[in-house]
Design brief:
- This is Putative ABC transport system ATP-binding protein.
- InterPro entries: AAA+_ATPase, ABC_transporter-like_ATP-bd, ABC_transporter-like_CS, ABC_transpr_LolD-like, MacB-like_ATP-bd, P-loop_NTPase.
- Residues 13-250 form the ABC transporter domain.
- It holds the Pfam family ABC_tran.
- Keywords: ATP-binding, Nucleotide-binding, Transport.
- This protein has helices spanning 55-62, 85-95, 111-121, 128-137, 153-165, 183-200, 211-214, 237-256, and strands spanning 11-22, 29-40, 44-48, 70-75, 78-79, 96-100, 171-175, 204-207, 219-224, 227-233.
- The protein has a six-stranded mixed beta sheet, sandwiched between helices. The chain has a four-stranded antiparallel beta sheet with strand order 2-1-4-5, with helices on one face.
- By secondary structure, the protein is α/β, with parallel strands linked by helices.
- α3 runs parallel beside α5 and α5 (153-165) runs parallel beside α6 (183-200).
- It contains eight helices and ten strands.
- It has one domain (42-66, 83-256): P-loop containing nucleotide triphosphate hydrolases (Rossmann fold, 3-Layer(aba) Sandwich), CATH 3.40.50.
- It is 36% helix and 25% strand.
- It starts with 10 loop residues before the first strand and ends in a 5-residue tail after the last helix.
- Bound molecules: adenosine-5'-triphosphate.
- The site of adenosine-5'-triphosphate (ATP) has 12 residues, from β2 and α1.
Amino acid sequence: MNGNSTPPSQDVVRFDAVRKVYGRSTTTVTALDEVSIGLRRATFTAVMGPSGSGKSTFLQCAAGLDRPTSGTVRLDGVDLSTLGERALTRLHRRRVGFVFQSFNLLPALSVVDNVTLPLRLAGRRPEKAEVDDVIERVGLAARRGSRPGELSGGQQQRVAIARALITRPAVVFGDEPTGALDTRTAREVLSLLREAVQKAEQTVVMVTHDPVAAAHADRVLFLSDGRIAGSLDRPTVEEVAARMTRLGARAGELVAQGGAR
Ligand SMILES: Nc1ncnc2c1ncn2[C@@H]1O[C@H](COP(=O)(O)OP(=O)(O)OP(=O)(O)O)[C@@H](O)[C@H]1O
């Protein structure tokens, strides 16, 4: 079990009629347009869509890094709109893990100190057994004392995954986590995320442009023009690529029509 507050039957991320509008008056952009969707606990979701379709905005709103213009986002049963800045910061430290394309490790800290940073920020003393366990799980037991500059890209992303998992968060959000990695290393990193879902009942939500990466997920959600444009369960690379080609063609048509929204 992962020690979170909602029963497994509930959605760990829940959007109800979420709109996100950037800008004012004549120059507004509707990045999310009445999005309603639930993501189940202990599942791996990939979010895909053409450039500008709202993927990053979806992730930012789901993680409470950005607030919707209207509608409700619930994370682990908590309506994020009810939280002030301090409560949101606490939620980010304890209930949410992040893995970015650019790793975002602290260069002066060792592997162990990078991994345990979220615990220390949350005021918790890291327990040796839990630290050993997570570092073992990502295959870095022999590199505990190394600094990020001494590690390959794939190893650095493993550190970032361990750092995301150490707090046993309700959700790990990935923003193109394999975007900077070669194909083989990317596959290893995706397998680690899969394993976290299957073995540790972790929930993972990942934005990606890569159909191969998306095919590691249980489900792919497609966004187009700020709306959910469908989903694929147990996706194959070919199905994801075909769906993306169709959405890309549609996005191209909209641009040709003057970006009508
Ligand atoms: N801070 C902002 N101010 C104004 N417009 C924004 C802002 N952030 C995003 N947008 C607009 O909202 C829309 C959705 O952007 P978003 O970054 O969510 O798309 P995306 O699918 O992640 O794109 P990409 O794949 O290119 O990263 C785009 O039209 C974008 O220009």
